[in-house]
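Task: fold both queries, return tokens.
Query 1:
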Amino acid sequence: MFQIKKQLSKLYTSSILGNLSLTGAWVAILAARGYSLVQIGIAETVFHIVSLLFEIPSGVLADVFGKKKMLMVSTLMAMVSDVVMILSCNLWMVCLSIAFRALSYNFSSGSGDALAYDSLKLAGQENRFERYESNQMVIWRSCDGLSTLCAGFALTIGHQLAYGVSLITGTIQLLILSSLREVCVVEEDSTQPIGKRLIACFRESFGFIKGVRSVLGLMFCNSFVGAVDTLLVFFLQAKLPERGIPAWALGLALLFIQLGGIVGSRLILWVPKLSYRWIFAGSAALVAVGFLAEHAPLYWVMALGGFLSALGDDALQVRTNAILQDQFPSEQRATLTSVESFTFSVIMIVLSPLAGFVFTLW
């Protein structure tokens, strides 16, 4: 008998191990090693280029070869990234490490949610997916906040030891993922050549989007709100010190902002029947409040705005993902989930150059 509780518990544990890291503040680590902001920007550019190129193909591979296998590939890519960063002695090696890190995110972005939904569907409990997604957002926000607080410790022990710790957690994560059960809701024709299966999955996925255009609209609405919130939090890291926040309080303020996402991912569960239009309007309004608060003269008002922005972002994210997974066909679930991540990356690339100008107007 399929044990859904064990399956979800393993996915939760894997998320904790994958997101809780001493190296989360990799920008600060590179800066401490003597790399300039220009060089760090080049590494960030490499990350986004790789993400764009491999986001959708990684989803196709997950649908054809299995979500569990791609989650394991994701962890292996992260471990390779850690090894390269430990050995890195120049910008090229740093960029190579960042590229493998991007691939790690690519292979996990569509596979995790797809495997979770198909597992719940096999158990006849797909109505629990929104709660699962809420729990995952809580894990992500909590681990990200704790990782930020650990930045100082990572700088103290040095980047090699910090990335070495990540290698250990990656090994444990790989063992947990290997014990997952692969779920194939739809029977695949294994006699068909692999190339044709990959092409067929790609075509059918975009045929679905073309036929159900509301899906693309949901993706872009959610990605736009998420991109603005992400950029807001990014610039708050630089602007909070400008407003006079004490150095010891900066990490706590950023953790407080992350708590907003946790609150939002929980609050959305209380309104299961609220219209998506109202949820989108409310989330967009909260992010707009966060944007206005970012220009406030008081740092605590700025932090509160970031909290509200994260609240709106995660509430919308949880509801959107639940709606989309209900509509996605199982045989293209990972691919279509990756398309959603792809739209976020595209919007980020468009908004990022504008954000530096907009967020520094005042």
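Query 1 returned. Query 2:
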Amino acid sequence: MQFSVLGSGSRGNSVLVSAGEVHVLVDAGFSGRELTNRLALVGVEPAAISAIVLTHEHGDHTRGAGVFARAHGTPLLMTEGTRLACRKLFRGNEAIQSYRAGYPVDIERLRIDPFITVHDAADPVAVAVTDSGTGLRLGIATDLGKPTVQIRHALRGCDALIVESNHDEGMLWSAGYPPAVKARIASSHGHLSNRAAADFLAETFHPHLSVVVLAHLSEESNTPRLARAAAARVLAQRGFRGLVEVALPDRPTSVFDLAKLREQAGPPQLSLF
């Protein structure tokens, strides 16, 4: 399994997940043209995308979904609540398949496990993606107001995690947002702080975790340095030997090969904590 975060932030979010010739986009929050450009940067043709899985209706996750699907005949997968909430993006000639949280969906050799998350959207989910050929597993939770017991369970045992690390708490409360916006971001239905993301990663750590990508960073109330430092410090205490990367809004991350990263991490080590 390979993956790349094509970009992440308030301007757009999309993750490419690949297994052999199967390529799936989780969210499509950039314009159709921008999605095409970013796919080109990681060497994938738009026509090669097997499906687009939408996690919720917010524009930074759905903006290009309809245009891209119509241009390339790409199937769209989403919950019924999300379809109703973003129906203006669609013209009726798209191939739309509904899924439900708790019920896996197979896209050739990739199994998508959607699970309920906590966010201020109509029917938000996060997903775990498993390569049935290798058993490698990627967890994606980029809009996560509060990591519940169910979310911890769903992301347990992942070889890679893409997790929101939205804001530094001090920067958020001193930012120029209206008080109501600050309260919404910091609420249990808003976004995870760096500290909360680091605590969540510590709780989901296991010896086979190879790479963590911090996503959905606020450009106004966070920095890559602060987000990475918070996560790396906590993970190091658990004995983590993999990569901690930050997804940026304006370009894709590297393409991460999970099989190779697992080999490089070496044999599992016992945690002292």
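Both queries returned. Flag for query 2: The longest strand covers residues 110-116.
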